[in-house]
Amino acid sequence: MAIILDGRATSEKVMEELAEEAKRLAESGVTPGLSLIITGDDKYSLRYVKLKQRRAESVGIYVDFHQLEETTNEELVSLITKLNKDPKIHGIMVQLPLMEGLDEIKVVDAIAPMKDVDGLSPNTLGKLLMGEECYPPAGVEAIMELFKRYSLDVEGKHWLVAGETNFLSKPLAAYLMNRKVRVTQVGPGCPHLPDLVKMADVVSTELFKKHAVTGDMVKEGVIVIDNGNNYEGKNVYGDVDPAALEKASAYTPVPGGTGPMLISMLLRNTLKAASS
Amino acid sequence: MAIILDGRATSEKVMEELAEEAKRLAESGVTPGLSLIITGDDKYSLRYVKLKQRRAESVGIYVDFHQLEETTNEELVSLITKLNKDPKIHGIMVQLPLMEGLDEIKVVDAIAPMKDVDGLSPNTLGKLLMGEECYPPAGVEAIMELFKRYSLDVEGKHWLVAGETNFLSKPLAAYLMNRKVRVTQVGPGCPHLPDLVKMADVVSTELFKKHAVTGDMVKEGVIVIDNGNNYEGKNVYGDVDPAALEKASAYTPVPGGTGPMLISMLLRNTLKAASS
Questions:
Q1: Is the Cβ pair A192, B129 closer than 8 Å?
Q2: What is the pTM of this model?
Q3: For chain A, which residues make up each domain, given as ranges?
Q4: Which of B184, B196, B202 should be substituted to probe chain A, the one whose Cβ sees the most A Cβ atoms within 10 Å?
Q5: In whole angstroms, what is the distance from residue A23 CA to residue B230 CA?
């Protein structure tokens, strides 16, 4: 029987721990503060950031919310620069993608490394690659937290990172290079995906394609980390076919796997930043 | 017949081009300036930095040389901060490893990204991972320049990065993740090295062990990038056995492969920084 890596249940446990940690911080006179910044007026993104706000407030984090419906690189960078210096703010999260016309690298590069609790800035990603202390992207933290809570080993595994975004797959590969893992990374279009999946002990996917990894591709006992989020109407499907999960020793379900972990990981980084 | 990727000849060509570029810059009123910083009194390192100085001066770069035999993190960071603001200085290189007692990450993190011509800072490495513009470490540039000059393709290859330093193998893997390559990275101690070498189209090694990659490991037609530098008395040997090179379609010799390219790549980054 495969272990189901339950992101909802794990996230709830983490949230309880965070509430206790925030209480301890409050008793020592520190109110953790998180700035949430969203550009443009995309309703889906706005709803997600509002959810982050409610969750943050539910564990006792002060939220400083900014929606910039119209803005420029200069204005956004100047807001971030101000927040970098604000002692009430311990973490800064900018919702990506930015609205059209803004320069993502310039914006994330402005976030001070010690406040980069969502792991977006080049400085953070460089430290992740070097194996130095930093706040890794929530997606990376989510995966490693599930491994930890379910006592799965990373060391010695051959891990296929199938994906290439700057907020998940590439940082994950960078992180794994410091964990005695054989890491193989490929983009979603790679024609050799079947052969690479076949040899992997762990497969993490970010392929943007429903059931792209099929049952015949995986080896028996594989661990599957499915970061897929493929909508068909109201239904959401992972990148990995159920037939592949039948052969897995452990896997993240979709929905209910890594997704629900993301906000709690952001908030945990915020509390770490507030207590350091 | 294998193509021998001749680092000495290529480096000489690059140096000629750099001298012309520096001349053009001088005519437009810019003297490129490079700060070279060395800590402690290791004779071998000092000799190497002095060689960098001579080479830099030979193409018309102004060198600002600092040897700090005794220093502290604070003093070193304060020197770098001063140089970050100095308009005569376009590039800053700190020789690693630092003398005992100094904090490498704190020091390299102080170098301004736009002057980090040796690609040591977390900011640079993060940009490399993201596929953003930056000055990659000289070791990475050396390899990619040899590929370019000998018209070897990167795209579509399966590249085994066997090594895990912060100045070569991990940044190389990060860079390759943005080049439509299947990248597999492992540390030198990996027991699965033979299997991984077998499947690779390109093998780059940083194994610190004479002839660790043997003839039976590689596949016919492999491209070998040997970054080994293993001394036995006055002789230097690569990480790859000559029997493996016999099966290669192209390889870097040791000595005379990537090593001689390093200084010219540092200087090229310096000229780029001076002209931007």
A1: no
A2: 0.97
A3: 29-112, 138-259
A4: B184
A5: 56
